[in-house]
Amino acid sequence: MAVGVFDSGLGGLTVLQAAQARLPEVDFLYYADSAHAPYGVRDADDVFELTQTAVRALWARGCDLVILACNTASAAALRRMQEGGLPAGKRVLGVFVPLIEALSERQWGDNSPPREVAVQHVALFATPATVASRAFQRELAFRAIGVDVEAQACGGVVDAIEEGDMILAEALVRSHVDALKRKMPQPQAAILGCTHYPLMEAEFQAALGADVKVYSQGALVAEALADYLTRHPGMLGTGDRGYLTTGDAGRVSDRATQFLRRQISFDGV
User: Fold this and answer.
1) Residue spans of beta strands (DSSP E) within the chain
2) Which positions are catalytic?
3) Peptide bond into 198 cis (omega under 30)
4) CB-based contact 75:140 (threshold 8 Å)
5) Which of 176, 199, 216 is the last residue of a domain?
6) How far apart are the first and last CA of the chain?
7) Same domain, yes or no, for 255 and 232?
8) Domain tally, the chain
9) Residue where one domain finishes, among candidates 216, 239, 255
């Protein structure tokens, strides 16, 4: 019985790893749409179609619950999929909700008016598509007031990580943080709004400074998933665990093994 985890590439492995550590008794089927990565430079309609295809593939393999471990897909496709109606017994969850809960200091089901929160100046690092969607700002505004969010589109970082060029990725992180600081010199908190970015969390923290709290999604999403499965134990589905990719399985396996520092073997779809 497996829960599906989807990402455009390998970034979602950061969420998967946290979920596996938090829920060792749960099986997961990971699906990387490596043939079409990165999603962050695609338009919203393209992201929606690709995401829907991947989610349907996971449903077909018995994963009744699918986690969109991709901020771009969560921003551009999740609400549209939910509003269009999901098949009976199927659910899709994104990675924004736990992050919004943490920043707004309130549970998702709390529909009281927005209120002031402790963090007033937030830096958002995300893909160009996520930044353009303004989904994070929209959802946060429903729950918190007076929060200044400065977004920085981090072009090139995902590509560098997917290619395994961590030296380039580190240089790009420093460049994007410098650009953000020119707009917001003293952020109180920083959101790593792409599941690839936790692989560079130390570099983001070093460039931002020790006094900036960096929010990374893995642990937050894993805890939210644990809570969800406690309340909905029937959503474990019937699928088998594993790793799937639309790209070159051998190459993707090598990259994943490098990222997680343990042997990962992908199968093609």
Assistant:
1) 2-7, 27-32, 65-68, 91-93, 115-116, 121-126, 144-145, 148-153, 189-192, 213-215, 242-245, 267-268
2) 70, 194
3) no
4) no
5) 216
6) 19
7) yes
8) 2
9) 216
Does position 154 have pLDDT exceeding 90, yes or no? yes
Q: What is the DSSP string of 13-61?
A: HHHHHHHHHH-TTSEEEEEE-GGG---TTS-HHHHHHHHHHHHHHHHHT
pLDDT band at 42 (very low <50, low <70, confident <90, very high): very high
Average pLDDT for the chain: 92
- In terms of residue numbers, what domain contains 197? 97-216
Report the pLDDT value the prediction gives residue 108, as an integer from 0 to 100.
Answer: 60
**Three-state DSSP state, 127:** coil
pTM given for the model? 0.88
Phi/psi at 110 (5° precision)? -80, 105
CA distance 173 to 170: 5
In this model, does residue 105 exceed pLDDT 90?
Answer: no
